[in-house]
Design brief:
Elements: E1 7-16, E2 19-25, E3 36-41, H1 48-63, H2 67-70, H3 80-84, E4 91-100, E5 103-112, E6 117-121, H4 135-146, E7 154-156, E8 159-162, H5 190-203, H6 214-229, E9 231-238, E10 244-250, E11 257-258, H7 264-279, E12 283-287, H8 301-308, E13 313-318, H9 321-324, E14 332-334
Parallel strand pairs: 3-13, 3-14, 8-12, 12-13
Antiparallel strand pairs: 1-2, 1-4, 4-5, 5-6, 7-8, 9-10, 10-11
Helix pairs in contact: 5-6, 6-7
GO biological process, one term: double-strand break repair
Domain Rad50/SbcC-type AAA: 11-181
GO molecular function, one term: ATP hydrolysis activity
Amino acid sequence: MKEKHTALRYLKVQNFKALDFFEIEFPPPRMTVDPDILVMGSKNGWGKTSVLEACVLLFLAAAIGEESFKLGNRYLSTDLYDLLIQAGAKQAIIEGTFEIKNESISVTLTIDKQGNINIEKTQKNIEWFSTSVGYRREIERFWSAMAGLSFDPLILPPLMYFHSYRKVQEGNLELGMLVEKNLPLNRTSRFKLEILHSMMSDANLFDNIDETTAKPVLAKLNQLVKLYTGCRIDKLRPASDSTIEFRIIPIDGGMSFTFDALSSGQKEIISTLFLLWRYSPGIILIDEPELHLNVEWHSGFIKQLYKLAPHSQYIITTHSEDVFSSVDQDRRVLLMKE
């Protein structure tokens, strides 16, 4: 039987960024064995990214509250409320309904030009997170990504947002990154930190590093690296500047090489699939996956998502006909301006 996950079932947006009015339902699948997914296709400039950002903001409003928005102006060069509210409008309204276990929670977020935030919820005593540790850092990551300062996705289980400008940052890691809590958001990749943490945990060389999840994490990473590169994880290599390089090696033999030497498409599909597997189940938002995938992976991408994390809800925007047509007709919608 499929586990009950947190899901977004309804969204209505008014005067938010590129959207003057938008309303959509995200119905559960008819059969419990079917994927909980909706793929939205459209032409450039329609506002698909704004739809996903509205989903994120509604979740932050429901789960955390006004604090989520107070962090925004720190990262944005323009006024936050000018950015979020459509030109000429006085306020933006985002409404929606979440499903948490067997409970339905309706949320309304109103933002005006003066910076007033109003949040209304039908249920106030809902536990959205298993732990609240680190949520402030992830909110900062979201706003800095909107400002173009961070390339990491938003990982705030039960919500994950893989924005279109995500990227695995090149560069080596430092051991101190294992314990440093306030690294600059543009300094390194969260994906690489996960790998460093797991490899050091598996070696059992350090105190105060949890090793219970290291083996399954490394096994899953090896599976993905093998599938998309024909390689496996090798070792960590120290550099002269006291940093550490993450190495992989061809399965059929040959010299090891740095993970950074892979193509951007290989790095992105491995990191995206790994992170959503690691932090599922939840609401997974993916903006234009085709920008980060080799063409031959487009048609099989969604099948791979569901194979890795079958108990999550997926809301995906795309320009790719292969991605769009890879789901059943009732699981996709073509967005068009009237």
